Amino acid sequence: MDIAKKDAVKWFEFFAQLPEDEGLPPRQQEIAYATLTQIERAVERRRAAMLAEIPGLKSLKGRTLYVGEDAKFPMGCRSCLLGSGLSAIRKTNRCNIQCRFCYNYGELDCQPPIGEGLWEIGGTRFYEEDIDLLLAAQPKPTGVSYVYLEPFMEIEKYEGIIRRFHAAGVHQHMYTNGTLATEENLAMLGQAGLDELRFNLGATACADRVIEAMGMAKQHIRRVGIETPMTPEFFDAFQQKKDAILATGLDFINCAELHLNPNNIGNYLGEPMYMTRLGYLSPVWSRDLTLRFMKQAAGEKWPIAVHDCCNLTKLARDLNLKAKEGGWFGQSGYGSEFDRLPYEAFLPTLYDDSLPFVHEEELPDGYRLGQIVL
Fold first, then answer.
1. Per-residue three-class SS string for the chain
2. Which of 27, 290, 326, 348 is 20 to 30 A distant from 73 in Cα terms?
3. What was the pLDDT predicted at 7?
4. Count of C-beta atoms within a 10 Å radius of residue 59
5. What distance in Å separates the CA atoms of residue 247 and residue 237, rounded to the nearest whole number?
6. Which domain holds residue 300?
7. 62/220 Cα distance (integer angstroms)
8. What is the pLDDT of residue 85?
9. How many CB atoms lie within 10 A of CB 296?
10. In whole angstroms, what separates CA 105 from the centre of its chain?
11. Sign for the pseudo-dihedral over CA of 197, 200, 201, 207
């Protein structure tokens, strides 16, 4: 059903008042899903117009969009979208800063440890000396990434494992907020064989010391870039430091669409939100800002690749991974991170007159407010 916005407002105001443990019967679920579809269609219509204005827009085999130099599109993203997926290696369960967009917001002090001397790969614990066995027993991945939470908190422990995967010819990239990067530890990573270092520049609002660290990293590591959730704060800070950032010689910028989970959604309540294919929930402005950013990059001919790492890209990532794992047609790990839809989070979108629904119709009998819906 193409529910009208006025009806969607009334129903979602009602849903938002329900106790958290009270589920919706099937017809009310239909109304909720129809509303989310209407919101998504309205968002996509506006974005189609924005995409049409980006000169030189490119596609990576239908998996994602980017602008700029093909050779600088990050190999880690190619591995994620075309190869054997994103193989995450976890070691460090601590971080030295707290970002409001962090998926572990409010829980940074209680993240479980991996274990002394151990590395978590694919949900299994390994010692460094077990990597040879792992590579011999299973197909070699096209790439691995070092995540969770801030590797530079104990970066000295990473040298040996990076050397092992480098010797095996596995592409490796790492994420960091950059605040603990030094000439010494960046040189160590480069010598060990790290292929890509990705700075979450939005974590520090484009701090000068992190921009300087990016320049140092480029002297030691083959590929250096930015990967950060696209927020208004990052967008504005980047504009103020644009020349200095581009002067570091970086190769790419991955503009991640900010998606929210139960940990961080409270930091963004009141912002217009939508869901992508009933999966990731995001502020509407996040990808809108990415498309503005890409238009600017293409128009000004920045000598880098700028990647639209949006929710649809994450869907493509998970479809690719499941296919490589032998999953059935259509299988994916992509989905909502909420056990119960946060109906109140969508009210600002429904109140926003600048985002009209594409097509509306009257609710059929049995679905109107005031009727008993089972």
1. CCECHHHHHHHHHHHHCCCCCCCCCHHHHHHHHHHHHHHHHHHHHHHHHHHHCCCCCEECCCCCEEEECHHHCCHHHHHHHHCCCCEEEECCCCCCCCCCCCCCCCCHHHCCCCCCCEEEECCEEEEHHHHHHHHHHCCCCCEEEEECCCHHHHHHHHHHHHHHHHHCCCEEEEEECCCCCCHHHHHHHHHHCCCEEEECHHHHCCCHHHHHHHHHHHCCCCEEEEEEECCHHHHHHHHHHHHHHHCCCCCEEEEECCCECCCCHHHCCCCCEEECCCCCEEEHHHHHHHHHHHHHHHHHCCCCEEEEECHHHHHHHHHHHHHHCCCCCCCCCCCCCCCCCCHHHHHHHHHCCCCCCCCCECCCCCCCCCCCCC
2. 326
3. 97
4. 10
5. 16
6. 64-325
7. 33
8. 79
9. 17
10. 15
11. negative
- Identify the CATH number of the domain in which residue 231 sits: 3.20.20.70
Residue 373 is predicted with a pLDDT of 65
Q: Tell me whether residue 371 is in a domain.
A: no
Interval 53-78: pLDDT, tens: 999 999 999 999 999 999 999 999 99
Model pLDDT, residue 374: 63
Give the pLDDT of residue 370: 86
Residue 50 covered by a domain: no
Q: Which residues contact 245 (CB under 8 A, 6 or more apart)?
A: 201, 206, 211, 214, 226, 238
Domain assignment present for 346: no
Residue 38: which of 374, 368, 355, 255 has the closest Cα? 355
**CA 326 to the chain's CA centroid:** 24
* Within a domain: 49: no
The parts of the chain modelled with pLDDT lower than 50 are none
Tally of structural domains, the chain: 1
Distance CA(68)–CA(293), nearest Å, equals: 12
Judge contact between 229 and 263, C-beta under 8 A: no
